[in-house]
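Colleagues,

Please find the record for the two-part complex below.
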Amino acid sequence: MTLHTSDSWRFDVNEVLTSELHTMISFGDRLAAAGWSIIASSNGSAVSAATRNDATRWNNADAWEHWRDPLGNRDLTLQRGTTNRNWRAYLGQYGDPFSGGTALVAPIGALIMVQLLGSGGSYASNWIPSTFASYKYHMGARSIATGAFGDVFEFYIVINLNGSGASYALMNCFAVSSPAITG
Amino acid sequence: MDFEPWVSFPSLTATSSITGWYRSERVSMALTVAGSSAAPWTSVFVNPYSGLYDIGPTFLYDTTGGQEQRKGYLISASYYSPATPANYDTINNAVEGRSRVKFQNYFYPWPHGQTPVL
């Protein structure tokens, strides 16, 4: 899970998972490196403030992490389902911090959230392929806000099947409007 | 409302395609979706809300050539033609700020100087 810093992004690329949980642990590492704050987490049994989940804590049904972007404007929750392959994620609206939450239920926003991963409240079943070791994982989180109004912190996770070129976007958030870039 | 529209196109088992532009608004907000997985935008993307070519530089589309949008303008982007069967290419991977790797029809930010091992 080597951290690559480039172009205001914090990357992990060309990564082969050693376990299904590896994805969210590495993704959390990118968020942290990009300046996101961990607000709280759950290991499925108890909520811990300002604490991330390691592999042991993630390895329980309903474990979750609650993140806040570097400017404190938008929240993100990641939650494990009944297996290490099933996940869901919510991204909040600008200025709507998530609150509440129990050991089994991740915090939510007062306003309508966007479910980035899974749908209708359900988990994305088998989001991590059973043959996970046959895929390369690539992910990144940007350390500066972008977009025309500068309030979107971009991130992505994309995978490809080794050697085949087949690729799948697992979860991402990109600003729509173009910022000024150089190069 | 959110100041900045943002987009997400997660895909679980199908090849990646933009399934909609999502714009959230605080009041009577529903996730506003334009486009669909059945009819994703092709060619160069037009922001369905502004009607302008103001989509971020992440969203590049390739058939046989390349175009990259910057501040609403299209520019040429140099990268290798797709190689069979791989569907990834890089743009100026040695140059900071220009590194992208193409997965399906979309270019993702990539650390410069890191060779994709796909």
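The mean pLDDT of chain A is 87.

Comments are welcome before we finalize the supplementary table.
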